[in-house]
Design goal:
By secondary structure, the chain is mostly beta strands. It contains one helix and nine strands; from the N terminus they run E-E-E-H-E-E-E-E-E-E.
Length: 109
Amino acid sequence: MVENPFDVEIRVGEVLEAESFPEANKPKMTKLWIDLGDEFGEIQSAAQLDHHYDPADLVGRQVLCATNLGSVRIAGFKSEALTVGVPDEDEYPVLVEPDEDVPLGGLLF
């Protein structure tokens, strides 16, 4: 677990698979399987993305993930990273992502 917010590691990953997550208590949740590259492997993340994104359209996109915050179980699904977004005017997340392809696992600086 991170004690200092400046110790958070945000890495780039590619969405391998995504599906709606209606079992979660929060609305509009999505299950994500994300590839962080050879060094870090595949992780899972649950994010409130169904408001803006169809799960099928997320596959192949590069996203930013906070990877060292620990993991949580959400309705039985192990979420190992926080997929980074910023709120729109209705407080729904909009993804933060590179504007061109970059190497997977790269650390935000």
